[in-house]
Design a protein that fits this description.
The chain has about 110 residues and is mostly helical. It has three domains: about 45 residues, no CATH class; about 25 residues; about 35 residues. About 75% of the residues lie in helices and about 0% in strands. It has six helices and no strands. Helix 1 crosses helix 2. The longest helix has 27 residues.
Length: about 110
């Protein structure tokens, strides 16, 4: 059952309560009693946990682990060199290799040992 398919008046009739009561629940002026919550749960098929916004412990743990993983990843990422630094270091290493290779060829061409 999806209460969004109902007007407040229809929902109140469905729950066997008054339109004013449903209106007060919807606006936050009052909250359903425990008996009303059980009645709503039974008639709508929603659990009372879902109706009151309770998140099961397992879901809370998973959300916390997900958040911690994201924080850990961010912390590790902050310790790693910036991509620009890595790119510059790679270019410098390539240049050093090219320079060493040129020097080796030049020495070899003149018959000298490196």
């Amino acid at each position: 059952m999806d209460e969004r398919d109902f007007t407040q008046k229809e929902f109140a009739a469905f729950l066997e309560t008054t339109e004013t009561t449903v209106s007060n629940w919807m606006t936050g002026a009052s909250s359903p009693s425990l008996d009303s919550l059980v009645n709503i749960a039974v008639k709508t098929g929603y659990s009372t946990d879902k109706l009151i916004g309770h998140v099961p412990r397992g879901v809370q743990v998973l959300k916390k682990l997900r958040q911690q993983s994201a924080e850990t990843f961010a912390a590790i990422s902050s310790l790693l060199p910036d991509e620009a630094i890595l790119t510059a270091a790679a270019r410098e290493a390539d240049e050093q290799q090219r320079t060493a290779a040129k020097k080796k060829r030049k020495t070899k061409a003149h018959g000298k040992k490196p």
